[in-house]
Amino acid sequence: MRIATVLGRFGFWTRKIAILSCLLLLVSCQAKSQPTDNQMLVKVARVVSGQSLEVLGMGEKPNFASPVRLIGIDAPDLRQNPWGDEARQSLEKLIGGIEQSIKLELDIENKDKLGRTLAYVWKDNQLLNEQIVKQGYALFVGRSPNHKYDQRLERAQQWARIMGEGIWNPENPMRQTPAEFRFLNR
Questions:
Q1: Burial 129-149, CB ≥16 within 10 A → b, else e
Q2: Which of 59, 89, 94, 140 maximizes the CB count within 10 A of its CB?
């Protein structure tokens, strides 16, 4: 009987050690939080609109300004007063001005039909695409195949609508979507 008890305890500790070893192995295999191939650190040259920027530090010409379009949003056209200028100013404020460092995160499709880099823009661990939608200065528009943060952007838009922020302000709402405005004012 004593031998069975000793073997039972030995089996118990063997299982515990095996489980602990597996957990340590899994933790040691976790990826470190380093920028991956789909992320790059750049400096802002200028904010063009509520949905686009020009940045320095991309590709073969690091001193040349490259256009960037924020993924998943559609901000009012600059001619769509007053929302277009407010959207641009909001993005400028979120970035903190020119020469600021930001992180661009690419998704599946890297360029749009105009040759702009499509990216999620990060500053101080904040997704600026999400922030501009949450402040009510842009609409969430999911565009295939780039859907990585669609749920976050959709929730931000729902919050802005409920709170009556920016273009959702019931006293001064935007009457045409940016796409409708551009189509009618070509």
A1: bbbbbbbbbbbbbebeebebb
A2: 140
Does a cis peptide bond (omega within 30 degrees of 0) precede residue 82? yes
Q: Which of 165, 181, 177, 162 is nearest to 133 (CA)?
A: 165
**How many of the other CB atoms lie within 10 Å of CB of 111?**
12
Q: What is the pLDDT of residues 3-57, one digit of tens each?
A: 555 445 556 666 666 565 544 445 444 433 344 578 999 999 999 999 999 999 8
Q: pLDDT digits over 85-142, tens only? A: 999 999 999 999 888 999 999 999 999 999 999 999 999 999 999 999 999 999 999 9
What are the start-end ranges of the H helices in the chain?
Answer: 2-28, 83-95, 128-134, 150-163, 178-184
Q: What is the dihedral of CA 141, 162, 127, 46, to 10 degrees?
A: 70
Rounded Cα distance, 84 and 88, in Å:
6
Nearest to 7 by CA among 15, 138, 148: 15
